[in-house]
Amino acid sequence: MGRLLFHVLAVLEEATNSDSPIDRALAAHFSNIKGRLTPRDHTRIRDMVWGVVRRYRRLLWWLEVNGQTPQVRKLLLADLVLTHGKNVQDITHFCKGGGGYLKRLTDSEARALSAMDGKRLADETMPEAVTLECPAWAEKGLREVFGDRFAEEVDALREPAPLDIRVNPFKGNRDDLIPRLEKAGCKVEKLDWLPYGLRITDAGRKAHLPFYERGEFEIQDAGSQVLATMVAVEPGQRVIDFCAGAGGKTLALAAEMDNRGQLIAADVHNKRLARAAQRLKRAGVFNAERKVLESERDPWVKKNKGKFDRVLVDAPCSGTGSWRRAPDSKWRRDETDLEELVTLQESILTSAARLVKPGGRLVYATCSLLPVENEDQIARFLRSRPDFKLVPVKDVWDTKMPSPMPETMGDMLRLSPATNDTDGFFAAILERSMD
């Protein structure tokens, strides 16, 4: 294990120093040491890295109560004791120093690890938010929205996310794809409450890759599929996905439009839109075009004022609803980041609203669960734009979805892992008056 720990720490330090996502740091590290480790080693390193990330706040608490500074190395050492049941003697053996091993333990580290020996990771004296791995910057907002359900909802955000897919109707249908996936070795569940949704539940997920590479489906969380359906596009309309990114929702909108009409995938990130181009081609979408914007207030927006039937704004956000997929993201943000995001969201929403034609709709969405990024944004927008009104989500759900709307839903879409078995999503449907 000693040599593996050297690589685990290297990945964690690279991610911390560069503020990079863990997945990216892992990929870069494995690329740099290509051929020096076995696939089993890669798996063990990956699991240990993600383990430290998923247990970060509890490990940090243990360091603090034992007078230790919050260093990545010390988090890893604490995890060896509190999660993996190692003692100081074991860890001393792992930390030989030099030659691909961690540096030797300091006296201070040894004393702190000894104090943790035999203790459980979740201590009864821990604050609730620490036990739940909830960062301080998000706790207030999550308590506000969930109330008595705070613990249940935040706990669900710690669980690994399932693999949901959206079947591409341009390449086949769901009922035909299920037995073919099963024959290939996949275990599949049909998500009956979605028009095209399936969930692959087996551990050996790579069996699905040939189907993905042929464009027969896209990997897309069930909540994201719901959001795309709530845009309620129709064939022949003019539609813009204003923050399209790599095009996941653009693909879903194209399917709903049956490749008819004009669909624009817009974003300020050229590289992400380039990825969207590849996905659109693979899926057989030909009614979509890409538009790179300089900013949310690009002059192109003014030139196309009032020309679109549907405008989807899937705004940049804190990502609290997607912590299951990116648990490291919660530790890369703080209160200042949240304030900046809220300001950016307001600017994007205000600018994108100019594109909506009279009688058209604007759908504002985030993968956040915080009211300041969601309901508060909508309330502020409606005060500034009296020509827009809120359309209750039920009005769209009843016409577009194959199953009744959950009773827990209000006038705006809210999905969460604990309540809906999806990532966390928010959406508000806003319609512009004909005047």
From TrEMBL:
One of its GO terms (biological process) is RNA methylation. The active site is at 367 (nucleophile). It comes from the Bacteria. SUPFAM superfamilies: S-adenosyl-L-methionine-dependent methyltransferases. Residues 153-433 form the SAM-dependent MTase RsmB/NOP-type domain. InterPro entries: MeTrfase_RsmB-F_NOP2_cat (IPR049560), MeTrfase_RsmB-F_NOP2_dom (IPR001678), RCMT (IPR023267), RsmB-like_ferredoxin (IPR054728), RsmB/NOL1/NOP2-like_CS (IPR018314), SAM-dependent_MTases_sf (IPR029063). Transmembrane segments: none annotated. GO terms for molecular function: RNA binding; RNA methyltransferase activity. PROSITE patterns: NOL1_NOP2_SUN (PS01153), SAM_MT_RSMB_NOP (PS51686). Pfam families: Methyltr_RsmB-F, RsmF-B_ferredox. Keywords: Methyltransferase, RNA-binding, S-adenosyl-L-methionine, Transferase. S-adenosyl-L-methionine binds at residues 267, 314. Belongs to the class I-like SAM-binding methyltransferase superfamily. RsmB/NOP family. This is SAM-dependent MTase RsmB/NOP-type domain-containing protein. The lineage of its organism: Bacteria, Pseudomonadati, Pseudomonadota, Alphaproteobacteria, Rhodospirillales.
